[in-house]
Amino acid sequence: RQCASSLESSLTQAVVGSHAKILRSQVIPITAAITTKINARHLSSIQHNPRWRASGVLDSYVAQPARPISLRQLVFFGGRNLDEKKIIDSANYVRTELPLRIAHRIRDMQKLPYVVVTNRHLSEVYELYYKAFESFRRIPEIKSLEDNEKFCEIVKTALQEHLTVIPSLAMGVLECNDLVPSHELDRFMNVILRSRISRRVIAEQHLALTDTFNSPFHFPDSVSNQPHDFVGEVFLRCNAREVVEQVGKHTLELAREANGSTSPIPEIQIEGRLDTTFPYIPSHLEYIIGELLRNSIQATIDHHSQSSTSLPPIKILICHTKQHIIFRVSDQGGGIPIAELAHLWSFAKGPRAINYLQNFSQVPKMAATLQELQKTAHTHSRRESMDTSLSRLTSRPPNLRLGMGLPMSRVYAEYWAGSLELHSLDGYGTDVFLQVSKLGNKCEQLNLDGV
Ligand code: COI
Predict the structure, then answer these.
(1) Is ipTM > 0.95 here?
(2) Which of 99, 143, 205, 401 has the highest Cβ tally under 10 A?
(3) Does the predicted TM-score (pTM) go above 0.90?
(4) How confident is the model over 320-376, as pLDDT tens digits?
């Protein structure tokens, strides 16, 4: 592979002007062929694997659209009068929706150039997806609570097996970024990651509802009159200020650990509509706010490393409109160098991508986000003792920077129809705007075009 990419870059550098483009288009297939040859043994195992052949069953799933759901609908499923029928309906929704959503992503992978999809990391993900597709599509209709218990076990195992999907995808995309234009790889990553969040949301919501239903404190009659703060994984009264405060405290502790307790650390100041509450899945918001704060804190420390005065604060303004909550995170960390701006949201290109290629290979078997690992561990411990393979999995060490925090945060924000934008004032600082829907009435955004 190294041969292939250095051949490509030296040949490309050797040409100038309009010929560069033409030559590049000829060089890429050559380097791809070399990479393919190097992977020949791996490739032949794939060619003989029936999962790689066209399948009528898969076609029939791909022909059906997914049925996206809103936060309100998630709440409705598990809200008032959580009874046996609701649990069974929820189980059957998840049972039918998971294979369908996975089938669409398998098809996306099949459409990638062959040399890309045969990459070791991407084909690992492909195999996992195919296994999950085959397992979920064969589960018969759930008719009783006993059926549901068995179903929950299968879901739990799948959630655990898929913990390492993000690092595998990230590694795969980086290793292939000289074979396919990076905007195509980024599009692929955005769709596949959004879809993955969506599957984990519906699966985890169902497990949480089943737990609530089985809980000895669950009395359907009294529940019907009492608004609960949590319905499954959805927190009905997420408080913007509290989330920022909690995540901020944790992020500052990490920064102290990373930079030494004697180095100055910026203060986090929160202002604006501090009472704002809205329904949301807290772990999604915690991930985004955590990544934004980590970036701002580190940039402020680095930019002012020569200064003896105290560091300028990071300011978080919370405001809201009828439909949205907006968080503005402002720092004076020097902004983002112009050369990096072009690849800011890319999984496949840019200096930050190099970061995660190095760091991911340092810690190969891990979940990319702490929130996912905690959730899976929690799901296990509240249902039974944790599987030993899960306890072997580690989250990324808190100070290990993978460089994918911004694009991943945007995937989380856009999934619930929100947005994430960044404005950099080169040499001064950065303002990041996170907008989330306030009413919980927006459906999951499964495709990039909003369909
Ligand atoms: C994933 O995490 O990628 C999943 O698809 C999980 C799902 C099979 C429960």
Answers:
(1) yes
(2) 205
(3) no
(4) 999 999 999 999 999 998 888 989 999 988 665 666 566 555 544 445 566 666 666
